[in-house]
Amino acid sequence: MTEIADGTTGGAGGQGGRRSRKGLKIKRIFTTPGVHPYDEVEWERRDVVMTNWRDGSVNFEQRGVEFPSFWSMNATNIVTTKYFRGALGTPQREWSLKQVVDRVVGVYTKTGLEHGYFATEEDAEIFDHELKYALIHQIFSFNSPVWFNVGTASPQQVSACFILSVDDTMESILEWYKEEGLIFKGGSGAGVNLSRIRSSKELLSSGGTASGPVSFMRGADASAGTIKSGGATRRAAKMVVLDVDHPDIVEFIESKAREEQKIRVLRDAGFDMDLGGRDIVSVQYQNANNSVRVSDEFMRAVENGGKFGLRARLTGEVIEEVDARELFRKMAQAAWECGDPGIQYDDTINDWHTCPESGRITASNPCSEYVHLDNSSCNLASINLMKFLRDDDTFDVESFTKMVELIITAMDISITFADFPTQKIAETTRAFRQLGIGYANLGALLMATGHAYDSDGGRALAAAITSLMTAVAYRRSAELAEVVGPYQGYQRNAEPHKRVIRKHVAANTQLRTYEAMDSAIHAEATRQWDRCVKLGEKHGYRNAQVSLLAPTGTIGLMMDCDTTGIEPDLALVKIKKLVGGGSMKIVNQTVPRALRKLGYQDEQIEAIVEYISEHGHVVDAPGLKPEHYAVFDCAMGERAIAPMGHVRMMAAVQPFLSGAISKTVNLPESATVEDIEQVYMAGWKLGLKALAVYRDNCKVGQPLSAAKKQPESKPEVQIVEVPRPQRRRLPNQRPSTTTRFTVGGAKGYMTASTYPDDGLGEVFLKMSKQGSTLAGVMDAFSIAISIGLQYGVPLETYVQKFVNMRFEPAGMTDDPDIRMAQSVMDYIFRRLALDYLPYEQRAALGIFSAAERAAQQRGEDPAALHEVDTAALAQSAPIEVRKDVPAQPAQGTASGTSLESRQGRTADAPLCLTCGMKMRPAGSCYVCESCGSTSGCS
C-alpha cells in the first residue's frame, strides 16, 4: 500500500496555502524500474477515415496515427477524432496516443510535484509511469473534458458534471440562462432545481400572478436547443428538478407528456418532427431530463393513501392538498407516455450527505449520478473491471486497490489546476473537492465469471467491488488530507461526514457473500474501511465525495469495454470494426470465457457460439443447460433482464457510493402504468437515490385512437371469403434497368424489370467471381423475390426486412447515393427503394439520396426536390409520381437491424447526429458505437 513519508518537497495545501512537509510514497503496480511503459508495448500505424453518412463524403481523415496493436479500430477512431488536438494537416496536430497521454499526464505529474503530493521526485516518476501504463493499457480513463482540455491552450476544464442554483428573482433566473449557456458551449451539461421559484398560484409583490417555473423552463429549453444546434456534435444535456410539494408539480409532471402528444399529432399531419427536423423546434422541453424530487413524507402518503400538501414557496404554508396516490399515478402515467419525469429520493440523498452544514443537496447533473451542493462540479474517471480478472478467473484485489489509490490521487490533483465555467462553481468545487471514481464492464465481468446479472451472486460480487472501491478511495482521501490538508468545508462538516462513513461501514458489514471471489474482495473491503475510519478520525478527508457510477459512454468505447457503467450486456452479438475497413459480426468474447467457467468443453463451446452467432440468443443452444441461460441474459433480446432485476442491482451497490447511479430501467412496450409505479416504489424502499424509467417505443407510434372512442356495438357475425392473391406476370418485353455495384470490394450486377404501367415486378442478381453454390443461392433468392412482387407483396415490405441486414462483404460502395452498406442485401434494397419507392415512403424508412441528404444538411426540406410539374409527372411512369404529402420522419422510425430483429426486440434509441448509426443506451444517456458521440454524457 502507499505510505506517507516525510519529504523535502513542499507545496500548497488544502488550507489557505499551508505548506506540507510530507508526501506520498508511490509504489509500482504494473511498471518495471528503468523501463518506460511505452517501451513494453507494440505500436502500429493506422489510417482513420470517417465518412459523412448523409452523402458519403470524407469528413475526417488522418493517416498514420500510432496506437498499441491491441487497441480496436473503434477505440482508435474515437480517440483520433475526438481527443487528438491541433488543426488537421498541420505539424501541431497530434498523431500518436503517446502524445495525448504525455500531454495529460505531464500536467498531473508536474502539478503534484509543485503542490507537495509526492515525497520525492522518484515517487513522482513512478506516479507518472503507472498513470501512463494504465491509460495506454485501457485499465481506466478520465472523463472526456480531461482529454479535450488538459495540456492545451484552452481552459483546463476537467469536469463533465455541473449543478447550478436558481433563486426566486428575475436576476437569478437570467443568470441561470447565462451559466447554462456557457456550460453547453463547452460541451458539458448541468442540472438545476427550480423549486425556489414561486408557483403560478402565488402572487408577486406587485400584485400580479407569478409565471411559475414551468414557464421559465421554456426559455431555458429554447436556449439549450439554440446552443446545441450551433455547437459541437452532441446535444446539450440538462436536468430540471422540481420538488413534489411545489404547487406547479402537476404542470411539471405533464409538461413533456403533452409535448409528446403534440409530436405525434404533428407527425401524422406530415410535419418533420424527426430529431433535428425543421419542425421539431416548435415542441418544447425536449432538451432536458425532468425529475421529481420526492420526500419520505410523500412516499408514505402514497403507501397509506393519504393527502399531501403543496406548499407556497415564500411562506411554506400549505395552499393545496392533493391525493398522494393520484399525484404518484400522474408521475407514472407521464413516464409511461414519454419516459419523463424520473424520480429522485430527497431524504435518502440527504441522509447520505457528507456536508449538510453547508447546504442541502437539491439537484443532480443531467444523468443523475452526481448529487451534491449547488454551484458545484465533479470530475469523473472509470475503471475497466475486466482488466482485473486474471486468467485463472480470480479477481486481482491487490492491483485493483493500488489502481484506485493512483486514480484518486490524480483526480484530486486535477482540482488543483482545473478551470471552471463560473466563479461560484470554482469556489465550491475547490472548497469541497468532489470526485467521482466509478467503473465500467461490470456486466462483462459478471458473465465471464458465470454470474447472472439478476442473481444474488452477481449482486454480491458487484456490491463487494463497489464497497472496496469506495473504501480505498476514502482511505486515500484521508491520506491526502494528512499530506495536503482536508477540504476547506471539512471542519464544519466533520461529524456528518464521519457519520456517512460509518453508514458505508455498516452496509459493508451487512453484505452477504456467496463464493470465494466475492468473499476475498469483501474481506479486503472490510480491512480498507477499518483503515479509512482510523485515518479519517485523525486527519479528516481531502474530498467530500469520492465515488459514483457514470454512464461511461465515450470512454467506455475508448477502453474497448463490452458493457458500460453498471449496465448488463446489451446483446450477445456485436458488430466489430476491422483495422483495414469494413466490419464483421462476432459473438462477444465474454461468452466463450463464461462457458469455460461453467465447465463446457471446447467442442461444446464452439457449437454454442455458432448457434448464438446465428440466432442472437442462447435459448435451445446445443448442449447448453437451461439452468445456465440466465448467465447470458442481456438488456434486450430473447431473454431480456426483467425491470426489477435492474432495480435490485442498483440497490445492491448504492450503499457503497458517495453519489448515485446513472441508469435507466428499461421496460418492455407492454409494460403498464402500474409496473412503473412498482419500480418507483421499489426504488424508494430499496434505498436508491435516483431512478429513471423508459418504456420501449413510448416516444414513437403511440396509438391516438384512444382519444377517438368509437361507439360500442356488437358486429354481426359474418363469414367473409378472403380472395386468394393472383399472380400478375410480366409481359415478355418489359422495361428494365441494370445496375453495376461494388460493396466492400465485391462486384455484382442487379437487373430490375418493371411493368409497363405499374412498378417493379422482377429482380435478378449476379455476383462476379462466385462459386456455383452462391450463384444458385442468388438465383433462387431472385426468383423468390420476383414471385413475391408479382403476387402483390409491396416492395416496401422487402425493404423493411432486408435494409440494415449485416454480413460480409460490407463497407464502402461505388454508389454516390449509398456510400456505406452493411451487406450486399442492404445495398440492393436501398437501391431498389431509391429507384422505385415514393419519397414519403423512403423518408419513413430513413432512406435518402445524396441530393436529399445534402438538402437536409443545408436545413432545407428534401421534399421540395420532388415538387415538379404535375403535367410532366402525368406523362411519366406511375412509379415516379410523388404524392403531395410532406416528408415523414426518418430517424425516429427507421427499421432496426436484422440483428435486433433476430433478438426479438429492437433497441429504442436515436440515430447519431454525427455518423447516422443507431446509438445504444449507456446509463441514462445514449452512445454511438461508431463514432463515440453521446447524448450528453462523457
TrEMBL record:
<feature type="region of interest" description="Disordered">
    <location>
        <begin position="883"/>
        <end position="902"/>
    </location>
</feature>
<dbReference type="Pfam" id="PF02867">
    <property type="entry name" value="Ribonuc_red_lgC"/>
</dbReference>
<feature type="compositionally biased region" description="Polar residues">
    <location>
        <begin position="890"/>
        <end position="901"/>
    </location>
</feature>
<dbReference type="InterPro" id="IPR000788">
    <property type="entry name" value="RNR_lg_C"/>
</dbReference>
<protein>
    <recommendedName>
        <fullName>Vitamin B12-dependent ribonucleotide reductase</fullName>
        <ecNumber>1.17.4.1</ecNumber>
    </recommendedName>
</protein>
<feature type="domain" description="TSCPD">
    <location>
        <begin position="731"/>
        <end position="835"/>
    </location>
</feature>
<dbReference type="InterPro" id="IPR013678">
    <property type="entry name" value="RNR_2_N"/>
</dbReference>
<feature type="domain" description="Ribonucleotide reductase large subunit C-terminal">
    <location>
        <begin position="159"/>
        <end position="694"/>
    </location>
</feature>
<keyword id="KW-0170">Cobalt</keyword>
<dbReference type="InterPro" id="IPR050862">
    <property type="entry name" value="RdRp_reductase_class-2"/>
</dbReference>
<feature type="domain" description="Ribonucleotide reductase class II vitamin B12-dependent N-terminal">
    <location>
        <begin position="48"/>
        <end position="138"/>
    </location>
</feature>
<dbReference type="GO" id="GO:0071897">
    <property type="term" value="P:DNA biosynthetic process"/>
</dbReference>
<dbReference type="Pfam" id="PF08471">
    <property type="entry name" value="Ribonuc_red_2_N"/>
</dbReference>
<comment type="similarity">
    <text>Belongs to the ribonucleoside diphosphate reductase class-2 family.</text>
</comment>
<keyword id="KW-0846">Cobalamin</keyword>
<dbReference type="GO" id="GO:0004748">
    <property type="term" value="F:ribonucleoside-diphosphate reductase activity, thioredoxin disulfide as acceptor"/>
</dbReference>
<dbReference type="InterPro" id="IPR013344">
    <property type="entry name" value="RNR_NrdJ/NrdZ"/>
</dbReference>
<feature type="region of interest" description="Disordered">
    <location>
        <begin position="1"/>
        <end position="20"/>
    </location>
</feature>
<dbReference type="GO" id="GO:0031419">
    <property type="term" value="F:cobalamin binding"/>
</dbReference>
<dbReference type="InterPro" id="IPR024434">
    <property type="entry name" value="TSCPD_dom"/>
</dbReference>
<dbReference type="GO" id="GO:0050897">
    <property type="term" value="F:cobalt ion binding"/>
</dbReference>
<keyword id="KW-1015">Disulfide bond</keyword>
<keyword id="KW-0547">Nucleotide-binding</keyword>
<keyword id="KW-0237">DNA synthesis</keyword>
<feature type="compositionally biased region" description="Gly residues">
    <location>
        <begin position="8"/>
        <end position="17"/>
    </location>
</feature>
<dbReference type="GO" id="GO:0000166">
    <property type="term" value="F:nucleotide binding"/>
</dbReference>
<comment type="function">
    <text>Catalyzes the reduction of ribonucleotides to deoxyribonucleotides. May function to provide a pool of deoxyribonucleotide precursors for DNA repair during oxygen limitation and/or for immediate growth after restoration of oxygen.</text>
</comment>
<keyword id="KW-0560">Oxidoreductase</keyword>
<dbReference type="Pfam" id="PF12637">
    <property type="entry name" value="TSCPD"/>
</dbReference>
